Amino acid sequence: MPLPMEDNHNNEIKYDETGDFVCYLLTLDRGEHAEFIKRVAYSCGVPRSVVYSWKYMCCRIPTYAKEIINKIAGVKVFRDV
Question: Are 56 and 62 spatial neighbours (Cβ–Cβ below 8 Å)?
Answer without folding.
Answer: no
